[in-house]
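Quick start: read one record
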Amino acid sequence: MTCKRAKLSFQQRTDSRSNHHCCVPFCTASTKTNSYLSFHTFPKDSVLQKQWAVKIRRDHFIVTNTSRVCSRHFVTGDLIEPLTPAGHRRLQPGAVPVLFHWNNYNIPTPRLGLWERTERPPNTDLTVMQTDPDEDDPGSCHEHVYCTSTEPAALHLSLNENEELREEISKLRQQIEDLTVSSKFCLERFSASDEDIRFFTRFASHAHLMGFWKQIEPATINIIRVTRAQSFTKTDQVPHSASATVLQPIDEFFLFMNYLSLGLMQKDLAHRFRIHRSTVSHIVNTWANFLYTVLGAVNIWLDEDTVKAHLPEVFQDYADTQVILACTELRCQTPNSLHLQSEVFSTYKSHCTFKGLIGIAPHGAVTFVSSLYQGATSDKEILKQSGIVALLKPSMAIMVDKGFLVEDGVPGKVHIPTFLSKRTQLSKSEIKKTQSIARLRVHVECVIHRVKEHKIFSTVIPLSITGSINQLFAVACLLVNYQNGPLVKAWASDC
């Protein structure tokens, strides 16, 4: 149906004091050139006002008090006659402009629905059927059948087809879920392979990893997210829920373990987990601080009775041993400053290093981890600054390598291999003692080996992460107590 607009007359107005223009595109009507048209302000109702703006095709149009739409864009039924006493023409409530240049000033024909637009063959209407086939008999009774019955066999076949379709849909959904998981780099993808879990996280199995996750998961709701702004401005810390990433917390932990275990570049991790590189940096710093806080809150130093209760049989000759100590060095990038180079240069490694002290109980548990110091710092100075001396008692002995000269720096006994001291050879008893201490002390080297299985420490550490290297080192050392089984039995060939 089309509705042609009434013929409009144009004449020069001489008595108008207003100067309004129609805001519809392609419309040049104004109060100065036409007295027949009326010019209407936009409705105050925001919904109706938006409809006007959409209809006149003026997106993001700012309506003002001077915005007008002339009467040529409204159908006749929307205009109220007669005029007001002031000579103004009014609009019906809810009127919307529909006549424009782009539709040739005709009312758009409403589009037919799907049912009306679908072509159907004749005599397909099954809702009205005659029960008596004799249509010529005027006395016959015609009935309308509104429900047709289905044959039992056909109904049974239909039910079977529906069941097959449901099974097919279920299989397709499962395939989509499997493809989604296999395309994502996340913990769930590798949960069925303990070998993959060992490779990516250094945990012995998926069960080990999930056991550790259950211990720390309750604390993740209060995790403090480290951002670049916080690292520079020391602003208020934000809990995890306030600025969570697109990854689930367990996948953030999996990303952190990938970074620690494989020593991957942040750009590589960003590609694997499909996130921005800066997000990887924030996740690594956040979880380094979080695990450093959570694991550091656990008291790993053991009292004498506990150590003796778990003392292995091979330590019976050194039953008073409380802790086995050893220093380890991590290679770092050479600083540009010559002064800094002299501070971190290690004559033992002939390279710039960070140096830390690790202590284990005789049965293999890590019971002490120091901060990292410059490579030029001596073992004796690290022992003094680390704070372990305050934990030792006169009845507690320590076991160290022969290069660890700290006899006068601890309150108790020191089990250390015998020196030649300008002699040509050691006595038989001294050789036996040296060999037995070496066999027992090797376990601390095994622990250090486990720490350095985290590949981030087996390469040259860039100076860009020196702000978090203490946390990363401490977390790697503390994780050794959770990642593997007993020290001597598990992976003995690796030691």
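The CA atoms of residues 47 and 53 lie 10 Å apart.
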